[in-house]
Amino acid sequence: MVYGRNLFKLIIIKIMNVSTKKEAIILSSDHNQFNENKLSTEYIIIVQNLEKSFNSVKAVDGISLKVRKGELFSLLGPNGAGKSTTIRMLTTVLKPSNGDARIAEYSLIKEKDKIKPFIGVCPQENVVFEALTAEDNVEFVGRMHGMNTDDIKERTKILLEKMNIAGRKKSAKSFSGGMKRRLNIVMSLINQPQILFLDEPSAGLDPQARRLVWDFIKDLKKTGMTIILTTHDMIEADVLSDHIAIMDHGKIIAFGTVNELKSNSNNGNILEFSFSSRKELIQAKNRLEQITDVKNITEMENNKLIISFTGGVKTLKNEILGKIESFKTLHFREDSLEDIFLKLTGRGLRD
Amino acid sequence: MSTIDLKAWYIAKKNIKEKLKNYSSMFWTIAFPIMMLIVYKLAFSADDGSYLINGLTTFDVEFPGIVVYTIGISCVTSAVMFSMSKKDGTLERIDAMPVSRGNVFLGAVISEGVFMNLQIILIYLFGYGILGAHFELAMMPIGYLIALIYGIASIGLGLIIASFLNSPEGANGIAMLSHMCLMFVSGSFFPLDNVSVFFTPQYWVKQVYLQLTVVGDSFSDLLYSGTIITPTSVATFFPIWSGILMILAFAAIFIILGIRIFQKKTTL
Predict the structure, then answer these.
(1) What is the ipTM of this complex?
(2) What is the pLDDT confidence band of residue B231, given thresholds at 50, 70 and 90?
(3) Among A58, A141, A266, B45, which residue's Cβ finds the most Cβ atoms within 10 Å?
């Protein structure tokens, strides 16, 4: 009875998944090519063979990418993948060891000072002047961008209100981590940058604040601002990004829209089993290994098993569920960004 | 971004606001020198002045040492400020904005300069006004200027220390250690008639300041070789104006070296 009800649910989900796949866009095949003519009209950032080495360690290993004007581009990767180093190079604070980038039509190597007025940077750490108030912090950044008093006041008020930190007269030292994070974002926006670099903007935020930041980023995108985001939060990347580049060991190992990455992963469908005991899990695993349509089996904590398989509902009904005698729960879902990420970057812990 | 403009003033304004809210820094800047002044006054109050020249008391002669100590604290505060900016990422944040390092350095000199002036005024008020240290009024402006130039040298030394240390705690410790060592080696705290004194900026500052503003010598008079003026002190062949040149040279060397080393160490 339970088996029949679950199967019905799975069929409904499967039908819905098929319809969402229609939205998939063709993978941008030209992201590694450098085309000067397209630069001013289509791309605001073109990175070509960018490298950064620290002694003998290559933190960024010859990456090339293009970012369209007005898009939200995410750099996704595990810790130590080279995301932040890439951002630090693109924001002119770190000199590349090799390669170049054109940002807002200027060369990163030869004209980095001309790039600075066009960009806003929200670093990974909460970089605020702790002894100053939120308003003083934002005003200081505005002054550094050569803004006048009226513009600074007007824009500071709007931004602080949007980020829910307006009217606080105490120094930033007394702010919570989340408030400092939001203040960081405001500081990066005071100069109305054409390109905004957000290095893990929602790190350390509670779910409410994270939603606030996401909504804010979505609103920014609507204004035509180009946003470069680094994150290892899959949901964040999924929700916000137009294009995603997955980085690991200093290289870009995958690129595309979320749907493109999913459709190109060849993971098929995902089933998550949980079992009452380890004995049950081992039995099920042994049987699943004999099914040719099962592509990948991963053991998780708490007697959980995640499998990816091809063949859709037919395989599920005839092959998989026919061979698994007992399980506690079963969850069927489409391949997620996290699955793709783990498939590409592996499960080993990073620094 | 090599130009210096109004942004230096905004950086200075920010630095001043930050420092005013840093109570430990304010203690070292203002309260500690006043405390030292009172301790010196109490320690030397029983002195009959019999071994000194022109009727000057030990407190009168040691007062320039307090001025040197007070202004030299800028080495500690600037080392802490710059190492903190490296550690907390604010320097990198400023680097990503359209503002030159020249503005950052000038901003630091302006903000430290504001506190230096405040320190000198307070020390003068306490030392001359309340505790009655002897001074020659005509030479006071030049004494004030010497103190400020030495302050710039101290900022340079602080920059050099901050270049090698990322932790403000470490910078604080090393800067304070070097400042105190130089104070003793230069004979600024206690008399030290040794050739090593010539290699410290503190010696030249104290000696020139002492002879001009306390003893009332003129620029062309000779410097004494010792760090305290007694009837047995021997005059060198250096005139006082050459001492001023030495102070300027130390200030120039320290600030140029400081900027160069800091730039080299922090330009990634």
Answers:
(1) 0.85
(2) low
(3) A141
List CB contacts of A314: < 8 A, sequence separation 6 or more. Answer: none
Pick among B1, B92, B93, B104 to test the A interface (most A CBs inside 10 A):
B93
DSSP H stretches of helix in A91-165: 112-115, 134-144, 149-162
Of residues A264, A267, A266, A213, the one with CA closest to residue A235? A213
The string over A83-122, giving b where at least 16 C-beta atoms fall within 10 Å of a residue's C-beta and e elsewhere, is bbbbbbbbbbbbebeebbbbbbebebeeebebbbebbbbb
B99–A144 C-beta distance less than 8 A: yes
Tokens of A179: 């408030």
The β-bridge partners of A256 are A244
Q: What are φ and ψ of residue B248, in 5° steps?
A: -65, -40
The pTM of this model reads 0.78
How many distinct structural domains can be found in chain B? 1
How many other CB atoms are found less than 10 A from the CB of residue A163?
21
Contact A132, A207 (CB under 8 A): no
Answer whether B212's CB lies under 8 Å from B138's CB. no
CA-atom Rg of chain A in angstroms: 23
Is B64 within 8 Å of B241 (Cβ atoms)?
no
Q: Which residues of B touch A125 (CB under 8 A)?
A: 88-89
State the pLDDT confidence band at B1, using cuts at 50, 70 and 90: low
Structural domain includes residue B153: yes
Q: Which residue is it, tokens 């702790």?
A: A130
Task: Catalogue all structural domains in chain A, each as residue range(s) with its CATH number.
Answer: 2-17+267-345 (3.30.70.920), 68-95+115-263 (3.40.50.300)
